[in-house]
Design brief:
This protein has two helices and no strands. By secondary structure, the chain is mainly alpha-helical.
Amino acid sequence: MYALTALLGLSLLVIGTIAVIAEVKGTWHWSIHLESTLSFVGLFVQYLLAALVPLFGLFVAVRGRWSDA
């Protein structure tokens, strides 16, 4: 779960970095890079969240059961 969360954070860092470069450069070339990166990372984040949400629920349920014992 921690590895998937780290991947989510890194993907958001990549988007932010490319967005800053696109803003500073201000060219259409970097705009295209930003659009394609957003598309691919959006799909990647969708799959990560599909895995993280159930894992987090399982983590909370197991942790609650373990602390009651």
